[in-house]
Structure prediction request, 183 residues.
Amino acid sequence: MKLSPIKTIHKSLFCFAFLLFNCLTAFSQGSPNTSYPNEFKLNVGWFIVDGTIEAAYEYFINSESSIGATAYYDGDSSDALGKFGIGPNFRVYFGKRYANGVYAEAFGLYYTGTLSEDVIADMPRINQDFNTFALGFGIGFKLLTRSSNFSLDVNAALGRNLTQESLQDAFVGKGGISVGFRF
Prediction:
């Protein structure tokens, strides 16, 4: 049985909300260690679902904010977010512990890929390479181990393309479940 796109989106949002609620209520935190201002993380959720490799770096400015950068590679250039992307982000944390808990994020994303469209049913697809830039906002939740060396980050974000005219009406969605190491 194939679900409609709306039902698929609702199911995904429900699963994300359920996971976020469980993380908020069931995870106990130890004392934070503020001597680790850097974090490197891999998006294992996106890798499991789509095979995309995404790595991110985050620098903690203080206990409530951070700046970072994300880069990803996907072997299929016709995916929604193209073949390659890179971009900065800024996060504000609302938890009582050091750079931990619920956060809001503003991000930029430069990405490349191939637009494919069928002209006539019997004709091959027309492919057009693109390079575009998007801006957006997101939310997430970060959990730390007691030693504050390892993290689990669950997030979702939505943005809008700005430069590619054929993509300006399209939304950019990104998210995942990342495992990180602070150093």
